[in-house]
Amino acid sequence: MYTPPAYDTADPELQLQLMKEWSFATLFSQTDGMPTATHLPILAGRGGKHGKGVLRTHMARANPQWKAFEAGARALVVFAGPQAYVPVNWYEDDQTFPTWNYGAVHATGTVTLEHDPGVLRVLLQDTIATFDTPPEGPWRMENVDPAKTNRLLRGIVGLRIELESVEAKLKFNQDKSATDRAQVAARLMDNPATAAAGAFMQRLDRQTEPAD
Predict the structure, then answer these.
(1) Is the pTM of this model over 0.85?
(2) CA-CA distance, 70 to 130, in Å (whole number)?
(3) Nearest partner of 195 among 81, 84, 89, judged by Cα
(4) What is the DSSP code (8-state) at residue 166?
(5) Percent of the chain with pLDDT over 90
(6) Position 212 in a domain
């Protein structure tokens, strides 16, 4: 991913946090020379053989993409963060051009496929525990008819991705003055469609404020 130094984020803890926050990601691979993508919920964690982290997810067994990983294809997972168009009229100096603010994390690695029902059951339990918190009502996976659960487990494939590299790009007007950034963030916060991008700008500015 092309990333100018001003937008590069090499902090592994921040990279991991962003993968957890932007957890509905896109898994890319090549199948017979053609690019393939699947949109999936991702569980991100520390560790792994390379110390770069581990991603876990699952897809439908009917999805042919997993067979590419069985054949040795490497994975690219793209986590997309908040984004918004920024017009020039929000800047003090109008001798410039509009831009697009956005955040993204690209993670690449090798894939181990999981077919064991016990492993898949734990993966589903972990996924539900991560995203269904607090639980929305009385439903619990363990209360589902075992025959239905087993049928579901037979219909999915688990993926464990050992990360080899992680890149994070946070392009949020770092090339502008503090006044411009504050103005842009405020205008973005005024619109529900772009409020997440404005809030993220404010968060970045708080993180980069010099210590007293």
Answers:
(1) yes
(2) 27
(3) 84
(4) E
(5) 86
(6) no
Domain containing 93 equals 5-207
Upstream peptide bond of 134 is cis (omega within 30 degrees of 0): yes
Q: Is residue 100 part of a domain?
A: yes
pLDDT in tens, 56-94: 999 999 999 999 999 999 999 999 999 999 999 999 999
Q: Is 3 exposed, middle or buried (0-12, 13-18, 19+ CB in 10 A)?
A: middle
Sign for the CA dihedral angle at 8, 79, 28, 121 comes to positive
Asked if 152 contacts 158 with a C-beta cutoff of 8 angstroms, the reply is no
CATH number of 23's domain: 2.30.110.10
Structure tokens at 15: 């990279």
**How many domains does the structure of the chain reveal?**
1
Taken as a whole, the chain contains a residue count of 212
Residues contacting residue 113 through CB under 8 Å, at least 6 positions apart: 66, 69, 70, 157, 158, 159, 160
Angle between the 146-154 and 117-131 helix axes, to the nearest 10 degrees?
100
H runs (alpha helix) in the chain: 12-21, 65-70, 117-131, 146-154, 178-189, 195-208
